[in-house]
Structure formats: structure tokens, C-alpha cells
Structure to design on (129 residues):
């Protein structure tokens, strides 16, 4: 089962998952966390994300990291007794955040098509917002 926890920045996604992981401590559940601090663009600075080119660059970086994280997790767990994978953040976040800044920009439709394609190949069983 593939589960995603999504929501706004600083809404407590990681805190929630850390607590659930500590409480459950079950070997058949894999918690996959995400740390965006390695992004080459500091997206915590509001003036940075109010720039179209930066928003697109951040979104593409996030999409590449989130997709590769899912692929790597799936392949690393293929031969293990893991029944549930829970992701902190997911590709759906990349539909919301840039849409606020980019509105009807052509890049939004391209981003949406990529995410739709990925989800058709590797859907989430549950999404918690």
C-alpha cells in the first residue's frame, strides 16, 4: 500500500509522521521522509518564489526529487516484508504550490500532464491532507 501525507508548508506533516512512526514501530511499515533543504534555490524566501522562473525551477527540482524518491523506495523494498509505504509529501504538492504563483501559465499544464502520467503508473492508495 502506498500512502501520501500532503498539506501546506509547515502544517505538521513531518511532525505527525515522526510521532506515528515512533508509536507504531512496526517493521512492515516504511516511512519515507523528505527534506527540501538540498534544493539549490531557497524556497523559504517569499521573494524567491514570487518569481516565475524560480517557481518553475523549484517545481521541476521537487518533481525530480519526489519521483526518484518513490522509484528508489519501491525498488529497495521489492524483496523486503514491507506492506505499507508512507511518504511525507508527494507529487500532488507540485500541482498546488506553483499554481498559486503561475496561475494559467503554460508550464502548469505540462507539470499536470507529467504528474497525471506518473500517478497513472504508480498511484497512491491513500492520501491524507
Amino acid at each position: 500500500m502506498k500512502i501520501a501525507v500532503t498539506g501546506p508548508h509547515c502544517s505538521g506533516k513531518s511532525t505527525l509522521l515522526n510521532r506515528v512512526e515512533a508509536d507504531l514501530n512496526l517493521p512492515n511499515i516504511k516511512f519515507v521522509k523528505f527534506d527540501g533543504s538540498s534544493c539549490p534555490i531557497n524556497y523559504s524566501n517569499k521573494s524567491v518564489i514570487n518569481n516565475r522562473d524560480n517557481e518553475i525551477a523549484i517545481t521541476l527540482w521537487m518533481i525530480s526529487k519526489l519521483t526518484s524518491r518513490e522509484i528508489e523506495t519501491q525498488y529497495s523494498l521489492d524483496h523486503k516484508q514491507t506492506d505499507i509505504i508512507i511518504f511525507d509529501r508527494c507529487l500532488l504538492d507540485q500541482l498546488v504550490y506553483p499554481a498559486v504563483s503561475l496561475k494559467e501559465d503554460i508550464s502548469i499544464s505540462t507539470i499536470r500532464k507529467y504528474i497525471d502520467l506518473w500517478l497513472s503508473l504508480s498511484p497512491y492508495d491513500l492520501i491524507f491532507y
Summary: The mean pLDDT is 84. The longest strand covers residues 84-88. Strands lie at 2-5, 29-32, 84-88, 126-128.
